[in-house]
Amino acid sequence: MSKRTDYISWDEYFMGIAMLSAYRSKDPNTRVGACIVNDSNKIMSVGYNGFPIGCNDDEFPWDREGDPYDTKYHYVCHAELNAILNNEGASLKGCKIYVALFPCNECAKAIIQSGIKEVIYISDKYADTAATRASKRMFDAAGVKYTQLEINTKELTIDFRSENI
Length: 165
Description:
The protein has 165 residues and is of the alpha/beta class.
């Protein structure tokens, strides 16, 4: 008997962890997860977008439009920042971060400051915004590589039934 050949790549695995983490987000519109990995393919941390600890997500706004004070944008911590902050204190220098959506300028600052050296993403749907252009400008200046992931596996199904383990 020979080994399986239909297993997923490391990139697909870590992006899958990031995307699974996004399912913890309670945001009704945008759910993003992030997974930080060191050069030994060890997961250093994960995160998803949501409100800071202690801020009840039933008492803060999820709206996208209106008075900025009453929208989510002043309150939500993005997945990348949460993953950086959730790290238990180990150095993130030289790590990669997997995130489905290209990081905004605020997350780019945190990524650079934490020492992460590569961003692997799927979507760059906000490429024309000032925030994303600023992210790329800072990443280029700081030597942070960013790579759009080409996925061979388009869909994975997670089966939680014990009889299939």
